[in-house]
Amino acid sequence: MINGLDCCLNLSTLSFFVRIRFLVKNDGLFLGSSSAMNCVGAVRVAQSIGPGHTIVTILCDSGMRHLSKFCNAEYLSQLGL
After folding, report:
1. From which domain of life does this come (predicted)?
2. Is the pLDDT of residue 69 over 80?
3. Per CATH, the architecture of 13-76 is what?
């Protein structure tokens, strides 16, 4: 294990697209794929360790460079969205 690393998660493309759509709809945050994956991971860790802990992540990119995928109906339908 890498020093300072608590865990690693294997996350799917679908999970970050679902999180991106949730954050836009519910929080007004238009995040990029790296930030969305960080959020997915933070939520999964929070669910696994339960209440009473602090989880920190970084929202490091916006969704602007992903508009071609976020607004592509064919691509989204392939993901089941």
Report:
1. Eukaryota
2. no
3. 3-Layer(aba) Sandwich (3.40)
